[in-house]
Write a structure and sequence with these properties.
DUF4295, 51% strand, elongated, mainly beta, 1 helix, 12% helix, single chain, 3-stranded antiparallel sheet, DUF4295 domain-containing protein
């Protein structure tokens, strides 16, 4: 299950959010954390992938 928003960053007029998602590697079966800073409006799209 993906963790929700960790930190909210304010830069100028855009509200940016750091998101972290846990993804299982098909080769090794280990879990890898994918971190990305996205616009606050795109958070749901990031977790939908």
């Amino acid at each position: 299950m993906a963790k929700k928003t960790v930190a909210t960053l304010q830069t100028g007029s855009k509200k940016m959010t750091k998101v972290i998602r846990m993804v299982k590697s098909p080769k090794s079966g280990a879990y890898v954390f994918v971190e990305k800073v996205v616009n606050a409006d795109e958070v749901d799209a990031f977790y939908a992938k």
